[in-house]
Amino acid sequence: MGKARLLIVDDEESIRLLYQQEFTDEGYDVVLASSGEEALEVLDKEPVDLVILDIRMKEMSGLEALQHIVKEKKNLPVILCSAYSSYQDDFSSWLADAYVIKSSDLTELKEEVKRLLEKYYGGDKA
Amino acid sequence: MEKCWLKSVLERGECPNIDPDTEAHLLNDPKARMREKCVECPKLMVDLVSCEAPHQVAMELLPRVMGEDQGEIQHLKERLNQGRRRIKALSEVTSLIRDSTNLDEIIYTLLTYLTAGDGFGYNRAWVLLAEEDTLKGYWAIGPRDHREAIEIWRCIEEEGCSIRGLLQRKDTFLRDKEKFRPILERLLFSLDPREPLMRFLEARRATLVDRDTCPELASLLDLLSVKTLLVLPLWSGEALLGCILVDNVVTCDPFHPVEVRALETFAVQAALAIDRARLYRQLEEKIRELERSSWEKECRHESITKLEKMSAVGTITSKMAHEIRNPVTAIGGLANYLLKTGKSDERVLRTIVEESKRLEELVRDLISFADTICPSKTLLDLRMVVKKAVQEAEEALEKGNHTFRLFLDGEPIMLQVDPRHIRTIVWHLLKNAIDAMPGGGEIKVSLKMEGDKALLEVEDRGNGIPSQMIDKVTRPFFSTKGGTGMGLPICVSAAKEYGGGLKFSSSPQGTVVRVWLPLRDKEEGKVEKGQGNRYRSWKEGEGIFPGVEGR
Question: What's the farthest any 2 CA atoms get from each other in chain A?
């Protein structure tokens, strides 16, 4: 079973640091991007198994990036992770596989990562 | 043969001076005949001259003539005196109603004049006023019956009340109104031209009404329990204001034609006074309506403003909550991570510290924003407030290689101001200026009067704000520097509290932010104007406070 590679997309350095520390300790490969454009560049260059995507970012928003990802990368699970709960009402967020409200407790986010990896890759990625 | 001028009765044709067709009554009235015909008849003179004692006869005749004239003269004198009293009373009443704008005061003054002995002396007087499409009984004065009349007139006679005296007895008028309420309520007529009463009112003259001549008004006569009634219309131009009814229910005295004509003149004055009072009453009501409306409008405006502010607060608060979430997530998450792993990662710890500071800034900005919503203003010299604000900012901000240069107008600038607003504005503008010049430099702060405004300027020598961002910098949470993005929106909100605002002037050589605050009038705070641009530069050898060296 290979290591799953997660792409963390967030313009807040503190959040990127947090997710990197936590998911690296969980045994995942972590790649970081600070914007939607950077995320698409990473996706073009290297394989990624799951994307954790912030919504409210400067320049390209997470929802816009989501649309590009869904269009260009079929079968790539995306978790929208935001401090804003109101985006759940935006139908474009429904393109994502999951919507998680940002919290200092990453339990829910981690469970969603596990669930989606299981769903998309069976037991091949962890 | 008996002299014709001595006979009690003359035959037709017996007196050549009497026309048997038109003056036949003189044939049977020796006194009247003597006065009107005999005294001018040459036959009387001839007879007197031919009699034995003409002077004696003349003396005997004289009282017969003069006696009747005396009676007539006395009667005329009484009527003249009565007329004089009435004119005097009319003059008093006219001056009273001319100066009054109170409808009730005018009405009972008019009714008093109609019923007072010194006035027209009628038994009762009623006023009906037109209201929309009906004529309604409004007020009445007088006795209900004979017994009450005796009592009232006896009291008046004993007290010797003049019209002025009668008018002092306001409680009596109110009692009269109440006393006649059952009848007044039944005095209700349509203003339809087909209404019988309207026919008399349209005539625009005083009309004597009785059952014989006006059977259609029998019900009105019955209601008032009279046989005869005088109807006086009250017109103002083309508008029917109402009418006055007068009766002599107790004495049953007839209405003299001369009096009726006089009443018509009186009715004209009465109508003018009533019209004026009604217009005044309508005007008062309109003013009250406008005041109510204006007050309601002000309340609504205040409510709307409050709602807008609350809505803004709600929106800002919601955004603030979301802005707080990121640093809280990072701090909590990283702290949990350290706790869980037991690691001591400097990078993680530094991030926790930085995010904590960021939270502190957010909270400070939230408080500043709240202060702009609920100001507490006092009359202060704006120069001192700015000076203190700059000092506080100098102490609190990490200035690095930056220097503050403060220019204050030489004259006091007094304004009703919440110093927290000024402190907030100065803080954020200085912070922005520091951030604009990372390598250090001079930041100028000036305060002066410009026309009718107080103008606070903060100038830096940074790289300026790109033109495409000028409109965005005052939007909440817009930040190019990783800050809270609330600084400039708070400054704008604070300035708007005074009816002022912010203006930016930016180029690659630097940015000038101008905050203007309109001056207030004397009622809100005395403002003393500065005399031109007499600045006192802080940089010249002293710090913000005397004795503190400038850097």
Answer: 37
